[in-house]
Amino acid sequence: MRRILLTIVTLSFLLQVTAQTSDDRMKAYVANLMSKMTLDEKIGQLNLVTPGWGVPTGSVVSKGVEDNIRKGRVGGLFGIFGPDKIRQAQTLAVKESRLHIPLIFGLDVIHGHKTIFPIPLGLSCSWDTALIERTARIAAIEATADGLCWVYSPMVDIARDPRWGRIAEGSGEDPYLGSKIARAMIKGYQGTDLSKDNTVMACVKHFALYGAAEAGRDYNTTDMSRIRMFNEYLPPYKAAVDAGVGSVMSSFNEIDGIPATGNHWLLTDLLRNQWGFKGFVVSDYTSVNEMMAHGMGDLATVSTLALKAGLDMDMVGEGFLTTLQNSLKAGAVTQQQINAACQRVLEAKYKLGLFDDPYRYINESKPEKDILTAQNRQAARETAARSMVLLKNEHQVLPLKKSGTIALIGPLADNHAEMLGTWAVSGDKTKSVSIQEGIKNVAGNGVQVLSAKGANITDDTAFAKRISPFDKPTEIDPRTPEIMIQEAVEVAGKADVVVAVVGEAAEMSGESSSRTSLDLPGSQRKLIEALVKTGKPLVVVLLNGRPLTISWLDEQAPAILEAWFAGTEAGNAIADVLFGNYNPAGKLTTSFPRNVGQIPIYYNHKNTGRPYEGGNPKFKSDYLDVDNSPLYPFGYGLSYTNFTYDTIQLSQSTIRPGQQITASILIKNTGNVAGEETVQLYIRDLAGSVTRPVKELKGFQKITLNAGEMKKVQFTITENDLKFYNSALKYVSEPGDFKLFIGTNSRDVKEASFRLVK
Ligand code: BGC
Questions:
Q1: What is the model's pTM?
Q2: Average pLDDT, stretch 241-253?
Q3: Nearest residue (CA) to ligand 1, atom 6
Q4: Position 627 in a domain
Q5: What is the CATH number of the domain that holds 433?
């Protein structure tokens, strides 16, 4: 035994020494390189540019890129991909710049590179971290095959306001689930060795609180208490740092009156000093320059502010490039501050192995072999099916039979362009599977499919143009809305069942796509109402990047499937679910409001001093005109089978630090088909030194049960699960009574009680 222990101790010592040496080697390499660099070259490393072949998201595109690369005035490029383009740019840097320092190549690989997975909000509804990790792994393999080594993902901004279009890019409203997903994605992207030619450096964004923009208007002000930040908004960023994320992107918004990009408390005190982040921080697109519009001073002032705050790389705006030299002369920044930023950027390149081989990620034979492969498409299809949420299914309208006649109606039913969703910059729309194609593939010849467009996504030409400023405007049919609806109604009349595919255009959510109305555009609502009147069984498939306000639809349609934007394999995956080849199991990660007036609405809210408990009381925290509850709560999602939950059994009713409680529950599949269930554990701290949410997710397990099968699910609760940040921002647990809930969603739960004794 002693010998084993000794071996373990020696091994871990050796490991430490090796780890130290590789870190030391990196530091020595970078120090040596920096000793040869001019000030201009050091500042050059802080400059990230885009030649503008991608989608510029600000008003600026970098000029004179090639010349600046030659002069050593560019640290990295983004917005280009493909081995040939990247080789050209890298060759310029490596062959023609004085010190031959390689460039780092980044891109917005958000939910897949060329094989596009569902939008992140959809992905999160799978509650399947292994699956999500796999999507990031595939994205990394495809991205590196295209010469990239850096991706601007994961986006972990907690969002409780679906008016904000970027809710589509994140994992919803919950910090616990959001943290798990952040870790999974970083593992998938970065693997265990960043220098491998098929792993990429991740960039967690947008640090921080970007999802809390006032009124859901993109780029708007955020303002919140520290206690809310620490308990509710910061955990996923911290989880990313703990998981070893290589880079962080600062956000556009201000925090405590100082834009994140120039916020020393955020980028240095919290991120580096408190959380121990060792990588580099990049600004968002021109967010250094945008501090001028925020009212923080001229370009020199805001660039200085950013550098001093701890920002290392300036995306596109070139404020660092054009002002830091003079600011150094004027004493506004120090050489040490410039060195520190340069060192972090060079260290990232070192970790990626670019100094060993600047062409490491460039291999012309790879795209053919690794991109959009049959396996990747299959993974996308499975993932998409697992991301869909069955919101309603009365009279078992679903699954559909593989016989008879289906009327497939709606502006998104026979469409390729909108399938990929927002932020699929390298996705090829023409390679996506439309729902019409998917239905034919899955249902086979036994089903006759009749189709009609029925409506435009929107009839409003000005709105259609605003949706897609970089692309063709969302198509508007020359026929009148009445004629289109009439045709759809006629087609429906000939069918046994109607499948209506409606929702948003892909770019109605995502960046700069805030909406004040979350209704289906009027054209589509009219179509659905006409289809309801036909009396035919109606299945509504929704494609959208955010919760929509669909109380009316919930009243009228017997079946609703939330399919999000499902990616390259959208059509096949939707058909897999519609025909029951896959029994849907997705669960919402964001509450669906009844109307926009309820926003922000989220399950882990506080109780208030006057909680509403039902009825029509006066002087309670409620509304006169609508219930407090969402239409569909967090964690909600149906299956083609049913699950019953027995009562909760606790191993003990008190817990002390160092101990654990086991909560077990029997779950039975009482339906006729096998199904997956995500069993959710919530906890409520009944009294504390600060007010605590009415419920907080603290665990979940995915199980598969055959028809009639029963399984016991167990959760272990330790003191750690009861901790929170108190008013001194200390992470503590406090003795007292707790409630524990287990259920199929955040609303429908069984409950038990226990006490923490200290
Ligand atoms: C977005 C980021 C993105 C960046 C680069 C910005 O407009 O906010 O999420 O990574 O552009 O494309």
A1: 0.96
A2: 98
A3: 285
A4: no
A5: 3.40.50.1700
